[in-house]
Hints:
Growth Hormone, Chain: A, mainly alpha, single chain
Amino acid sequence: MGGAIAGSGLQVWCTCPRQEVEESAMMRWWRCNCLSRSFTGSVYLVEPVFALYIFSMSMGFMLLQQYVYRRLWLQVSGAPYPVEVDNMYCADSSTNLTLTFQEVQRETSLFFLYYYLLVFFPGLLPSLLLVNYSDFWGRKAAILPPVVGGLFLLLTCFLTSYLSLDLNFVLGTAVVTGFFGGMETLLGACFLYMADWCEDARIRTVRMAGLEIIPGLFSGLSSLCTGYFIRTAGFTWPFLTAALLLLLNLGYVLFVLRETLNTAASPCPTSSSSSSSSTSSTRISTEADPSSISKLRVMIGHLQKVYLIFVSGSRRRNTVLGMMLAAFALHTMSQRGAFMVTLYELNEPLCWSEVLVSYGSLLTSLTCLTSFAGVFFLSRCLGEHHIVLLGLLSISVGLLMAAVAKTTLLMLLVRIPLMLSAAPSAVLRSMMSKVVLSSEQGAVFACIAFVDLLSANLAQMMFSSTYAATVAWFSGFIFLLASFLSIISAVLIGVLMLFPLDVVEDMSKLTAEE
């Protein structure tokens, strides 16, 4: 049954768990519209949390990239960054800016290498634990930390810009931010939040697919705003604006968003025959007594859930799941190669302004929408493996084109072959969720979040160091490397097509063993 929050202008489609007792039509409408009088929250709508987080953090990171670039320009050249710089200015050989550009590009890429390195190690354990631990403490326990960590980072960036503090303050904050988790942790928690409350498989799939396109849509909007914001207000007030948006997001999570799990009672009584993952998660939370179990044992138990995915499965299933995770990791790494495009666009011979960089980021973000549309239509005539292969081919061709782009027009046209670049991520998540039991969904999403964080940060460090080493002789080399990783991922998917897994037979065996 579906429902909507009246007067909000937003549709909240949610399938409520089946009940053993018969309820009136009014009671059923009220319950299925996801409203409650509890002080813990009143709305089962998690999409605004993720959207506002992506908008704020995308704005903050684009600001940070260009702020660090201009601060390092001042240190290297001894003069402020020339705001009038453009491709014609770079093409003028009399300006003699080549050495300055190369040095600033190298220093900036090394700065972000240190940044990702400092975020990487503290963030490994939270990414694995928080999503899994939410089975015990509730989904909001995994949603809150990334928002708090992002708020702390943006406030530090604001103070650094306002007081002209040393850039090392930002690097120090990166260590603290890592302990709170990042986008991968928040995304995994949002997926589980939807799985808890929306029982209908079709509606849950549509909402999860919609969640996948949020990063592209809202990061593009924030990029478009950021360019003009920098031109009119500099960097200080945009940093503060992004921090205030995250503060608003924090208030929404604390006081508006309703918890789907409860240590005392389930939000909706469920029948004993319900097969949804929310029933399993609620049973865990109601039977466990946090006062009688040490925190260490609880953490170890949740880590074991990830380990048991591979122990309890057949060798064939474990091989397939491992290859899917490897393909997912390589795909994530190849996508992170495109994240260096801002530095590439600021370098000569392109020398894009902050507004042109914003338009380029907006076009890149539109690839998430075209990828969603591509998955929607291609799934009617192609299998999941073929859609993943098309997406990986899209990334490979687009990155090869970016490696040789030396004009503004060609760099803008790079976004055309990248139209399906975001498709492999969503489809691979769906494929991996289908090869495990419903009781293992939380553990497998935690494992995906961990692999996503691990591969993303490793890729950022690898590409940052590679760009610093190659910017003097071939700045597009990182795009060739990212394209090669995408090709390896496509090879793994091709091998999986040759040795398919009978999911129904394997799942029936696992269920019988349980």
